[in-house]
Amino acid sequence: MLSSDVQELRALADQPFRLLVELDQRLQTRFTDVGGTDASDAWVGLGFRLGEFSLLAPQREIREVITVPAYSRVPNAKSWLLGIANVRGSLLPLIDLRQLLDGEPSVVSRSSRFMVLNSEEIPAGFLVDSVSGYRRFASHEQRNDLVTKQSANWQEFLLGSFVRDQQAYLVFSFMKLALADVFQNASA
């Protein structure tokens, strides 16, 4: 009898991109599990804020961070799809992350940034309140129990969490969000 993990992966056989993403996520999860304490076991993520939350994006999921560019609205699109921008000759859909997850539109400020997904297949920039730079965490700072205390709208996109100096950082997967049905259905 096949394990449930193997069955889940076999179910994705006709969706090769989703299969690769799922395998990558499983490898990332395995590498972020508590292990040794030397520098090679450190987990690195890009810190950002969304409202009152301090979050981290896995380093490999973000290609770049950009300031708010000029963009054009997309007719008949959901309100969280802010529009399309021309970024260095490529069209980039711009998404209001807070509005997509919680229904509340973001207030754009001088510290607002777009985090650009590191994917050729799914180009997207996600509006966040601010970006604080890369953070390195040791395995003893991992606290995945914090994930279960978060909003149901966010929980499926959280990979884990870390705590440092009594500050919690939730690990948010932009790739999981980009593959979710809620993201794929941008038409109003």
UniProtKB/TrEMBL annotation:
A Pfam family the protein falls into: CheW
Any one annotated GO CC term: cytosol
Matching PROSITE patterns: CHEW
GO biological process, one term: signal transduction
Source superkingdom: Bacteria
Domain CheW-like: 42-183
Name this protein carries in UniProt: Twitching motility protein PilI
